[in-house]
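Task card 7
Instruction: Convert sequence to structure tokens.
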Amino acid sequence: MSQQSDESDEDEKQSTTDGDEDPVVRQYDIYITPEIEQKLLLLQYPNRHREQPYTAANNARPLEVRMKPDAGLVEVDVPLNIHANYDREKGIRWGEAMRKSNMEKDGGAYGLAAGFGIGSTTRRTARVSVNNEDFGSREASQEALLANFDDANNKGRVLNKQTLGGQLNPNEGWTPNYFIGAFRGNELHLSRLDHIAQLRPQFPHIDALTDQEKSSARAQRENVNQTRLNEPRAVQMTVKSADGDDLDMGETSKLLRAAQEEKWQRLKYLDEDSNESWAAYHQKLFLEDTQDAPRLTSNMTNAEYLNAISAPRTKVSHGGKKEEVIKEEVVGEVNHDSDVIEV
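Output:
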């Protein structure tokens, strides 16, 4: 008798579950954490598979993270595996270009972070000695570097890292608010993000090589006609609009110059599995006192909320006149007493 009763109850539960097209799987108490002093950023990597994260466990721990807060730029250097699927000849060629560029520009930048080259940049033409080796007098040959590839890599002559860069999304009054969630038991704690950035591969090594080729060609022209090239020239940036009118690019030039002049702020990177990262996770992303947390209340009914988020709808009467349809009629009947929408 007991066995038959248990089977009957089980069948009833199964039929109830099957009949519910949208069952409630689990419920969570939601808390919003207070704002923290540090900036909370979400860095996304659209070109990287989620199963290959940039972590120490995956042998891809980022080497450096840097930001230009005013310009809203962020860059991350990640290591390259130079011993698998790697063109050593091009790696040395680009590595040498980056090494020379870093010496000439004092570790400068390329692309948007450098204002796309708007204005002049400070260059060092004097001979520079690094690690007691005079690079200004002569350069090692490509063959010698290839023959001692590991040694060349240790001396910074091989392109062994990739730069990922992007822009921080604007945090204005009209922009949406994004949150990240952290679970603890039956609690979901939401923390507001300050910025989101999608980081994609940058190509500073290509820019460095092109820049040096242009500098070499410019030096040859200066030897031919030094006086003419030293004459000051005014440059006005313009761009053609779709209708052919000239648009002044003065404001854009100012923004690019500001991005060029702002110094990088280098940040300390902590791997996700480090003790410091786990400590920050528990301290910053959870609300400690959940018992006395204020409850969120809404000052809108369901009908008012639907009216606020819905687009206006119109209908055409028999006379051809357009009339706005009351949104409650479109959504369904609204029970104002219980604030439950009955469709």
